[in-house]
What we know:
mainly alpha; three-stranded antiparallel sheet; Citrate Synthase, domain 1; CATH 1.10.230.10; binds s-citryldethia Coenzyme A; globular; 376 residues
Amino acid sequence: MSTYSKGLEGVVAAETRMSFIDGEKGVLEYVGIAIDDLARNSNFEETVFLLWNTRLPKKSELEAFRGDLRSRYDLPPSAIDALRHIPKSAQPMHVLRTMVSSLAFLDAHPNANDLPSARDKSLTILARTPTIIAAFDRIRRGLNIVPPRKDLSFSANFLYMLNGEVPTPTMERAFDVCMILHADHGLNNSTFTARVVISTLSDVYSALTAAVGSLRGPLHGGANEEVMEMLGEIPSLDAVEPYVMGKLAKKERIMGFGHRVYKAIDPRATFLKTLAKQLAADTGNQDLYEKSTKIEEIMAREVAAKGIYPNVDFYSATTYHSIGLKLDLFTPMFAMSRIAGWAGHIIEQLDGNRLFRPKAEYVGPHNEKYVPIAER
Ligand code: SDX
């Protein structure tokens, strides 16, 4: 008799060689390397190679991978035209979901899901996602689209296309560390979604489109935008305590806290806290950082005993705001990075696939008679 676990809590539904999480100890590793080590020493392009090849690249391999990724930044005119027909008021995550799906129209063999094809499509989609997000933001602001520059890294190129100027090394590095930190995280909801879709031998575009849809949810990737809204709602440092206590009293969630797996602080939050502190100081956003640490202090006092700690979304809000990103681009940033993890899991799923088909426990009636409508 199989047991029912609501939300599949605690259920192992896949094996992976990419990220390892110890929720009790607050440990995250990508292919055995501690996330802190990668955030300090690696870069996003190298991290993608690591996740997709389950090893670090040699210098020549990284250069070849970088060249291939950067050669795919461009969006064809038909995709730019499609972006121009999207209402300027559209939410960027809806735009991203739609445009990732539409990239299938530009592919002569959109359904090919042999491993080389899946990898090739994933690299193109990963490369074009920043271009989609930046181009839409420029269009909705009434600005000229800034074409990508292949001499710039994934992170520098995104900030260049968004702002029309090459970012400072500090801003490029800060953004790139955020990309490293968000790249993969076990079988989170959006990754599971991607694996479920590809397990029918559907296509990479369908699986990634579904994953973008999942990530938008406020219980998942959408939390970083909710954190920023919360920080904006709290007028001063003194107002933090009554705000948090009021929410908790009403059993409402403080966004950016809690996690299905971590019962200690999310190691990504620890790293992002340091980054947020530095960036907030450099950009005059200390009030956001101070409000955040005050919230963390109160939540530690009130709910740490329940294993509720900051997660990746809590300090990424101050970090992204300090980098100069608009609030409704925060979750698209999460998606831009997580495409690397989603694609890695799609490839893992295809390599030894088994269709996902769990059971539902029927709890309704039996032996009911059909009643003609005239008698109801
Ligand atoms: C991400 O899975 C991943 O790995 C996701 C992610 C990734 O990298 O892909 O790490 C990214 O999505 C991080 C999570 C972002 N979401 C939020 O910050 C939204 C707020 N957090 C919560 O909604 C919640 O913590 C979840 C959804 C993240 C986890 O929820 P669970 O495991 O289903 O926990 P639960 O709802 O069963 O809560 C357990 C208890 C409850 O109290 P009791 O009813 O037992 O008294 O903890 C409380 C909850 O009320 N609780 C919170 C809380 N989160 C849980 N109380 C206040 N504030 C919170 N944020």
